[in-house]
Backbone:
């Protein structure tokens, strides 16, 4: 599976938007882009996923570059409860059970 | 719907003992995945099961580790003769089918080998 690159950590102020970047320059045409987050001492939580078009749900938005070599997870109004490690993962449609995890981005929210 | 249930949440074993970790998938989900996480690292895939079948165990060590998902009851991850290096958080995830969509994860079992 293709690899992803994320910053180790980011800081943001409470109630401001947060843009979490992810580079995946070796993405193939059948790879879906998934985002999960993990709060301390908890299991990962699904956030959002997409293939080519931008996606929105109640938790976040996913902006995918036109060449699909990068994507950005957008939290529109961060709260203290959004402090977590955010993982960007590629999931091949024909290898549809394994998720290959990197180290993720630790998001710190300042009150 | 209680989601993916894992138990126990914490498990302490002495070196050489056996550890049994249980996972009940979400109602209606027939696909179960086990992952292991060491501190400050991402999750590592171990095994993928459907009811009564192991689909892919390529991430699971060949010795001492085994997994099952019987027709009735939870999925079990068994670690025999545990060693200190087995200390980690073990997460189970489930999905209704193998393609598309996200997984639902349990809260994990934190295994400590003393």
Residues:
């Amino acid at each position: 599976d293709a690899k992803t690159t994320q910053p180790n950590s980011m800081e943001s102020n409470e109630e401001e938007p947060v843009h979490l970047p992810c580079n995946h320059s070796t993405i193939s045409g059948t790879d879906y882009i998934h985002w999960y987050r993990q709060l301390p001492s908890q299991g990962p939580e699904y956030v959002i996923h997409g293939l080519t078009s931008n996606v929105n749900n109640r938790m976040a938005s996913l902006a995918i570059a036109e060449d699909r070599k990068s994507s950005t997870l957008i939290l529109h109004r961060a709260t203290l409860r959004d402090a977590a490690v955010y993982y960007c993962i590629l999931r091949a449609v024909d290898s549809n059970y394994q998720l290959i995890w990197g180290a993720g981005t630790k998001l710190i929210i300042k009150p | 719907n209680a989601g993916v249930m894992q138990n126990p949440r914490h498990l302490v074993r002495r070196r050489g003992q056996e550890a049994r970790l249980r996972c009940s998938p979400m109602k209606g989900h027939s696909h179960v995945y086990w992952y292991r996480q060491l501190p400050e690292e991402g999750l590592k895939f171990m095994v993928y099961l459907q009811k009564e079948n192991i689909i892919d165990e390529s991430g699971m060590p060949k010795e001492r580790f085994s997994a099952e998902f019987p027709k009735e009851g939870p999925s079990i991850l068994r670690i025999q003769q545990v060693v200190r290096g087995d200390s980690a958080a073990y997460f189970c995830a489930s999905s209704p089918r193998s393609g598309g969509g996200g997984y639902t994860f349990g809260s994990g079992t934190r295994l400590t080998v003393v």
About this structure: The longest strand of chain B covers residues 43-50.
